[in-house]
Structures are given as structure tokens and as C-alpha cells.
Design goal:
Layout (H helix, E strand, L loop, with lengths): L1 E9 L5 E6 L7 E5 L4 E8 L6 E7 L6 H15 L8 E5 L5 E2 L7 H6 L4 H20 L2 E11 L5 E2 L2 H4 L4 H4 L9 E9 L4 E7 L17 H14 L11 E5 L6 E2 L4 E4 L21 E4 L5 H22 L2 E3 L3 E9 L4 E3 L5 E3 L5 E2 L5 E2 L2 E2 L13 H11 L4 H7 L4 E3 L14 E9 L2 E5 L3 E2 L1 H17 L6 E5 L8 E2 L2 H4 L4 H4 L7 H17 L40 E3 L4 E3 L3 E7 L3 H7 L6 E7 L4 E7 L5 E7 L5 E8 L7 E14 L5 E9 L3 E4 L2
Parallel strand pairs: 5-6, 11-12, 25-27, 26-28, 30-38
Antiparallel strand pairs: 1-4, 1-8, 2-3, 2-7, 3-34, 4-5, 8-10, 8-16, 9-13, 10-11, 14-15, 17-24, 18-19, 20-23, 21-22, 24-25, 29-31, 31-35, 32-33, 32-36, 34-35, 36-37, 36-38
């Protein structure tokens, strides 16, 4: 038995003009909202409250070091020594459709146009608020665990790299992806359901890099379905039950199950370089199971939800035992790894290889880079040497056979381009150990790490530990491929930034943490070197938010394009308003909803909200015009099972008015469509 608390809070941030984080495509800039992003927090405490563990899963691309440091600082100010770097795990779901700009290392500025305070603040505040809610609602309860297999939801997107792993190792596994889902169920002592955490390894990239609507992708859709199911009669984002679908060792795992095809010719491009005969690598794209990316997101999300629900309902194995957590900061560019009694190797200063620029079949890169490059390219290397400087001989030798594109560990202007100081962390709740990994482990890397940690627990008298990998935690360090996968330098290997022995170094470090927990010597672990905090103002290339203006004879919220009078179920109701920049709302609304769908009730002669902007069925598009004008289009994709009757769509925004003294005011406004009727087929 434990004390348990769960909490959920909005962390969406600005939904317009901010580059989305994930595909590193500078053209993929936010232009609206499909689903809200949430931070979901879970606190587990001993009954005597001597120890606590916090697990947070946030609907963001990854947790950045800056984000983590700011969250820890706020927690310290609020709660003293209760929530610390050792007992708080922050994990990102890895959606590729959330706002970027919350990083302090320079490499991540390039595609997200610098450090964007409103984006960072929204995530920090959302995480803190979710922890606050969980903290305020602690009650006695039980943890139950279950595991099972998810089918038809993943493919390995670098199968040729996977095949480099030893045959003797591969033969122990039935698939080149991890199909196992682990579900942790939380109920209070009266059996009331509190929430769940599911860990499953797949990239949330069902929405591709043409998408401009902020959303939480397939994992977020699974959370949405589970929470809608448990919080009956509540709007999305409301209700006390919290369902987190967290990331795991998803490095080489794609949800685009039809596999890679040449967009121009339709033939398969499942080859070691992922290239097409015509158009090369830029034409090779993987397709999801649906008719379009929305449909694919729904199908994959539904699969994940369905399995989680089944595992949740059947969960009977109780998690019991003491809580513990161990954490170290490590300089990952300088770890001495003992491979065996006689052989030691070292990690390297961070660097990205040529194939990093190729991207993957889920989101291809620019120019003519291909995956699997073990040779440099004199043209790009020449440009790189001129602009950014040549990698040192030492770094080149350390990373072999990776041809270095960006020697980020040797680039320090205006701040370092990549982290050296990285978090390693394990939190154990009785028989469950959560290994918090600062990046994306490939399938086989994850298997090796889990096995090593489990063995370490076993050998120190803590058998039968369930080891779960939580991905994208605490600081982002790209990918972690195995030594063998590293040799063929596909995207994941080229993005293994600390060199060929990165995985071995992590295994050594996490074994050390596991040993400390198992032998109760956590207090003797060295803290390690603290990460730096760079003094960055609001350094950004984002367009400034200017005053909003309206067309002649119109005001904010006026309807420009009206709804039809009648719709049937499965049709799309659509209305366009005179709009204002949604970035105004992100900072000035406490409870921001850009839209509602409302149904008219005869008996009370009033309107009731049936959908909001967190709903999967609504889409909010913002289009920027000239001279401060803009339009908002709201779509409601009327779902199967919608009650017949009279409805309307409302829009809520804020417009900016500049005052003479260099100040601005933000004025709320709303718009309402005409009423329309939903009729039977």
C-alpha cells in the first residue's frame, strides 16, 4: 500500500507561428490546434511518507535540460526538499506536433528559431500544475501491474541496422520491435480508479511533417480515449482520472505500418539507404494504416488504447515494497567504459553524422543526404568547415566510422551546441524499476539496458524486478544505437552523439544506479558535475506579435463564412471568423479554450457545451493575412453517435491593441456561428 496522487494540467503553449518540435523542419510552423497538450503527473509515497517518487509524462517532443532545471527550481521554492532531481522523472511522449523553442543548447535553436519564453513557460507551468494537483490529492491506494502484446502498430524503420546485431542475440526475440506494453494501474483503498501509466515503444509520428495543427499524436489520442471513457460526461481535459501513455525505447520504431514507399512511383524503398530510383532519399516516405494522417493517428491510437484498456481491466499483480530513487549527473563526453577485465574504451565529445541530415522514412531531410553514409561529402564538409569549423582529428577518430557533419561538442557560439552533462536516473517502486533515459534507445539498445539493470538487481538479492524504460527524460541527447548498429550509420546511429560506445557507457552507469538501490547505498553515489544554465534572454527569430487589425466594417469575431443550415452525422461543419493571433491568448487567458461546440436545449432554453478545442473532432485553423489581419476557421467533424438537434460553434480570442507608451493591451472577444441542425441520414 502507498499514498497515491494523480494530476493533469494543460501545457499547450502558443499554437501559432512557433516551429513544431520533432521533424526539424523549419517550414513546419504551428497554425492552429487539433488536440490540447497535457502534463500528467503521478506521485507515489510510502505510507509513513518518508519517501516519494514522481513520474511525469508530458505531451511534448522531449524534456530539455532547461525545462527540467526550471521545473526543479520551482519545485524547490514551493516544496523545499520534497521533490528533487533524484525522485522526479520528467518524460516526454515524443509527439512531433508540439511547439518547440524550449531548449538552451544552440543546435535546437536552428529549427525552433531560438529560445521562446512563452513556449518554455507554458510547459514549465503545466508540469508544475499537474504535480500540484497530484500533491493535493494524495490518498491511500494500490498499484497493480500488467503486461501484454500490442499487434499491428509498429515497424522497425531501420531493419538493416537491426540485422547488424549478433544473430545469437536476435534469435532470442520474435520481432525486430518491442511489442510489449506495460501498464501500471492506480486505485485508491476503496477501489476507486485514479489513473494509469502505460509504457510502449513507438514513435508518435502518425501525423507527418506537413501537419501544422498542434496535437499529441497517436499516444495523445490513446490518452484522450481512455480519459473520455473513465471521466464519463466530462469534456476532454476535465475529470479526475488521468491516463498517461508514456514513451519507451522507440528509437527505431515507426507507427507507419505500411512501410516505406517512393512517393513519386509507388514502389517500395525498403533498402539500406532508404532511397528511390528517381528523386533519391527525399522521395522515400512511410505510410500509416489510414487514408490520411488523421486517420492513421486514430487507428494506431485506438490499437494502443484497446490493449491498455484490456491490460488495465485484467491487472491483478500488486506492486509492493519500498520506494527508492537514484540520480547522477555525468559528463557523457568523457566516460571511461570497462568492456571487460582488460579492455576499456571512451565516449566522445558530441557530434552528429551525415545521415542525421537525411532524416528518416517518417520525416525525410533536406538536400541530398542519404541514410547509411559512412563517407563524408566533400561539398557539404567544405561548407561546414567554412561556416562552423572543421571537426578536430581527435573527435573524428573517436566517432569512427561516423563521418561528422556537425562537431557540436566543439561548437560553443553563442552557447554550447549540445549537452555534455547528462542525467541518469532510476526510480524504484517495490518490484518496478523505472529507468529514465535521456534520449531515444533503439529496440535492441533498450533490450540490452533492461537486461543489464535486471541482472544487476538480481545479483544483489533483488530478484523478479520489472524493468521499464521511460524515454525522452530529463535532457535530450538524440539517439542511442548499439555498437553494431552504429557501424552502418543510418539516421539513429548518426544521431548517437557520444560515439560508438554510448550504449555501453549508459549500461555501466545505470548498473551503478541499480546496484546502489539494491544495496541501499544511494547516499554514497557521487552527485556528479551540475549542468550549466545559460543566461539567455528571449533570444528568438520569431516574428514579433503585432497589433491585430480587422477588415473594413468588420470587428473581431465577425463571421466571414457561415455554416450551412443543416448537416448530417459524419459531415464537417465549418465556419470562418475575423480572427486575431492565437499567441495573444496563450499568455492572457487562464482557462484558454479557442472554441466550443454547443447544443441547444429546449427545456431550459439554453446552450450546453458538448465539445471544446481539446476534442479530437474539432480543428482550429489560424491563417495570417496582411497588415495584422487574420482569419480563424473552425471545423467540427461531426462524429458517429452525435445527438440530433440544434448546434452552434463559438470562437474565443484575444486581440492586441498597441498603446502609445510602448505598451499593449490584450482584449478578449468572441464570435458565434448561426445555429445549424444535425439531421438523420
Amino acid at each position: 500500500n502507498y499514498l497515491l496522487g494523480v494530476g493533469r494540467a494543460d501545457c499547450t503553449g502558443p499554437v501559432a507561428e512557433i516551429p513544431l518540435m520533432g521533424y526539424a523542419n523549419p517550414d513546419q510552423v504551428g497554425g492552429g490546434l487539433l488536440m490540447r497538450l497535457y502534463s500528467r503527473a503521478f506521485i507515489v509515497a510510502d505510507l509513513d511518507d518518508s519517501r516519494r517518487v514522481v513520474f511525469v509524462s508530458a505531451d511534448i517532443g522531449m524534456v530539455s535540460q532547461r525545462l527540467r532545471l526550471e521545473v526543479l527550481k520551482k519545485l524547490k521554492n514551493k516544496y523545499g526538499e520534497l521533490y528533487r532531481q533524484d525522485n522526479v522523472i520528467l518524460s516526454g511522449t515524443h509527439t512531433h506536433s508540439g511547439p518547440g523553442g524550449y531548449f538552451q543548447y544552440t543546435l535546437f535553436w536552428i529549427t525552433s528559431k531560438g529560445l521562446i519564453r512563452p513556449s518554455l513557460n507554458a510547459i514549465v507551468n503545466g508540469i508544475i500544475r499537474s504535480i500540484d494537483i497530484a500533491h493535493q490529492n494524495m490518498k491511500r491506494g494500490r498499484l497493480l501491474i500488467n503486461r501484454g502484446t500490442v499487434e499491428n502498430s509498429q515497424i522497425n524503420r531501420s531493419p538493416f541496422s537491426y540485422l547488424e546485431n549478433p544473430e545469437s542475440e536476435r534469435s532470442r526475440y520474435s520481432s525486430n520491435v518491442d511489442k510489449e506494453m506495460v501498464v501500471l494501474k492506480m486505485v485508491d483503498e476503496n477501489g476507486q480508479e485514479l489513473g494509469l501509466i502505460s509504457w510502449f515503444a513507438v514513435h508518435p509520428v502518425s501525423m507527418n511533417n506537413t501537419n501544422r495543427l498542434v496535437n499529441s499524436d497517436n499516444m495523445g489520442y490513446a490518452s484522450y480515449l481512455f480519459e473520455q471513457e473513465k471521466n464519463k460526461g466530462m469534456l476532454p481535459g476535465e475529470g479526475s482520472f488521468v491516463a498517461a501513455f508514456a514513451s519507451s525505447n522507440l528509437g527505431d520504431v515507426s507507427p507507419n505500418t505500411k512501410g516505406p514507399f517512393c512517393v513519386n512511383t509507388g514502389e517500395s524503398c525498403n533498402n539500406p539507404q532508404s532511397t528511390c530510383p528517381v528523386g533519391g532519399a527525399t522521395m522515400c516516405m512511410a505510410m500509416g494504416p489510414g487514408n490520411d494522417m488523421f486517420d492513421s493517428t486514430k487507428i494506431i491510437g485506438q490499437n494502443i488504447y484497446t490493449k491498455a484498456k484490456e491490460l488495465y481491466e485484467k491487472a491483478s499483480q500488486e506492486v509492493t515494497g519500498p520506494l527508492s530513487s537514484a540520480h547522477q549527473w555525468v559528463n557523457m563526453s568523457d566516460v571511461l567504459v570497462e568492456l571487460n577485465a582488460t579492455h576499456t574504451v571512451k565516449t566522445c565529445k558530441p557530434a552528429l553524422g551525415h545521415s542525421f541530415a537525411a532524416g528518416t522514412i517518417d520525416g525525410v531531410g533536406a538536400f541530398n543526404f542519404t541514410q547509411g553514409s559512412v563517407e563524408g561529402d566533400p561539398f557539404w564538409d567544405g561548407i561546414r568547415d567554412q561556416l562552423l569549423g572543421k571537426p578536430s582529428n581527435e573527435t573524428q577518430a573517436c566517432h569512427k566510422p561516423k563521418p561528422i557533419l556537425f562537431s557540436t561538442g566543439e561548437m560553443t557560439w553563442p552557447h554550447p551546441w549540445h549537452p555534455d552533462i547528462v542525467d541518469v536516473q532510476i526510480a524504484a517502486m517495490g518490484s518496478l524499476a523505472i529507468v529514465a533515459v535521456p534520449g531515444e534507445l533503439t529496440t535492441m539498445s533498450g533490450r540490452r539496458l533492461r537486461e543489464a539493470v535486471k541482472r544487476e538487481f538480481d545479483s544483489h538479492g533483488t530478484p523478479r524486478i520489472d524493468v521499464v524504460i521511460a524515454g525522452l527524460c530529463n535532457v535530450y541527447t538524440h539517439y542511442i544505437a548499439t555498437y553494431e548498429e552504429y557501424q552502418v550509420q543510418r539516421y539513429e546511429a548518426a544521431s548517437t552523439i557520444y560515439g560508438p560506445h554510448t550504449l555501453s557507457a549508459y549500461i555501466q552507469l545505470y548498473r551503478g544506479l541499480a546496484r546502489a538501490i539494491a544495496t541501499n547505498t544511494v547516499q554514497d553515489l557521487p552527485r556528479g558535475p551540475e549542468p550549466p544554465v545559460f543566461n539567455i534572454g528571449n533570444m528568438t527569430l520569431l516574428p514579433a506579435v503585432t497589433a491585430d487589425r480587422v477588415p473594413v466594417n468588420k470587428t473581431f469575431g465577425d463571421v466571414l463564412q457561415e455554416v450551412r443550415q443543416q448537416y448530417r452525422v459524419r459531415e464537417v461543419a465549418e465556419v470562418t471568423f475575423v480572427g486575431a493571433n492565437p499567441r495573444n491568448s496563450a499568455e492572457n487567458a487562464t482557462e484558454h479554450n479557442f472554441l466550443t461546440v454547443e447544443r441547444y436545449t429546449n427545456t431550459s432554453d439554453s446552450w450546453h457545451v458538448v465539445q471544446n478545442d481539446a476534442s479530437w473532432d474539432t480543428r482550429f485553423y489560424w491563417t495570417k493575412g496582411l497588415l495584422g489581419r487574420s482569419k480563424v476557421t473552425i471545423e467540427w467533424h461531426i462524429p458517429h453517435g452525435t445527438e440530433l438537434g440544434v448546434y452552434r460553434i463559438r470562437y474565443f480570442g484575444h486581440y492586441r491593441r498597441n498603446l502609445s507608451n510602448n505598451h499593449a493591451v490584450f482584449i478578449p472577444f468572441e464570435g458565434t456561428s448561426s445555429a445549424f441542425e444535425i439531421t438523420a441520414l
